Amino acid sequence: MSEPFDPTRYDAFVFDLDGTVWLGPDHPIPGALEFVDACRERGASVAFATNAIIHAPATLSAQLQHLGLARPDEPVVTSGTVVIETLRAEGVELIAGVMPDQLAEMLIQADIEVVSPNDVSVDDFGSVGTERALVLAASRGATIGSIERLGRLAAAGHRIYISSKDPGFPVAGGIEPGGGVLFAALTAMYDVDATILGKPSPAYAAVVANAVGGRDRRILMCGDSQRADIGIAAELGVDSVLLTGHSILPISADLPAPTYIAPTLADAPRRHHPEG
Ligand SMILES: [Mg+2]
């Protein structure tokens, strides 16, 4: 019983970015534009949701609009969005973080002070409390030294938030290191636990649900990461398409199963049967 893919069953489409609609803003993936346009023509709403954290949502929106992929009013959620909303809600005032400059700027704009773990000792950072926390976010500029310094603060008991456990994001010619590799480096040195705020976290799911008008919309999540994108679909309890054409990992039986699979958005999604 192989029910064919029927896009009219959905009234909100959420698209991952890297490996789904583009391999970075200079490399749109063929077929994505036509697929997204067809969703709009049927009257469905469109949103974008990425674990990438290097750019602010407004910057990504401008880049997507430049390619014709997004309209100005369509939401773009990043794990940075979720980091800031979460820290604000929890009353955090001071962050020691390893993160891209763009996220640090967004935090400062949200009235949260940001220091580098390289510049602060455990004693200087202050006692463990709700107003202080740590952030480890995917950043090409991260160094083993800065991750180790962050680990000292985490080992002292400060809460640590990470952007994602993704190993990386496919970009043209290679991989942008994700939060997962940085966290793997941290936990190779220190026995600490972290709260993940990127896809597929409950905090991220709440922001996505809000962006498309609520959890009772008939949502289809489209993405290339089984852990992040199919995981967030599972968290939301909605259908998903796993795009395998640019994915960097094979399909795993240990992660949530997608509803459909397709190489890219240019291809007709096929029902996924986990048992083969
Ligand atoms: Mg992706």
Task: Supply database-style keywords.
276 residues; alpha/beta; 2 domains; 7-stranded mixed sheet; 9 helices; 32% helix; binds magnesium ion
What strand order characterises the main sheet? 3-2-1-11-12-13-14
Helix content: 25-40%
What percentage of amino acids are in beta strands?
15-25%
Distance separating the two termini: 13 Å
- Which molecules are bound besides the chains? magnesium ion
**Distinct helical segment count:** 9
Number of separate domains:
2
Order of helices and strands: EHEHEHEHEHEHEEEHEHEHEEE
Per CATH, the architecture of the largest domain is: 3-Layer(aba) Sandwich
CATH class of the largest domain: Alpha Beta
CATH level 4 superfamily of the largest domain: HAD superfamily/HAD-like
- Per DSSP E runs of 2 or more residues, the count of β-strands stands at 14
Shape: globular
The structural class is alpha/beta
Low-confidence stretches: none
What is the oligomer described by this structure?
single chain
What does this structure look like?
The protein folds into two domains: 7-78 and 200-271, HAD superfamily/HAD-like (Rossmann fold), CATH 3.40.50.1000; 80-196, 3-Layer(aba) Sandwich (Rossmann fold). 32% of the residues lie in helices and 20% in strands. It has helices at 32-41, 57-66, 79-89, 101-109, 122-125, 144-155, 179-189, 202-211, 226-236, and strands spanning 12-15, 45-50, 76-78, 94-98, 113-115, 132-136, 160-162, 168-171, 174-177, 195-196, 219-223, 239-243, 260-262, 270-271. The strands form three sheets. The chain has a seven-stranded mixed β-sheet with strand order 3-2-1-11-12-13-14. A five-stranded parallel β-sheet has the order 5-4-6-7-10, sandwiched between helices. Helix 6 crosses helix 7 (179-189). The model has no long low-confidence stretch (mean pLDDT 94). Bound molecules: magnesium ion. Magnesium ion binds next to loops.
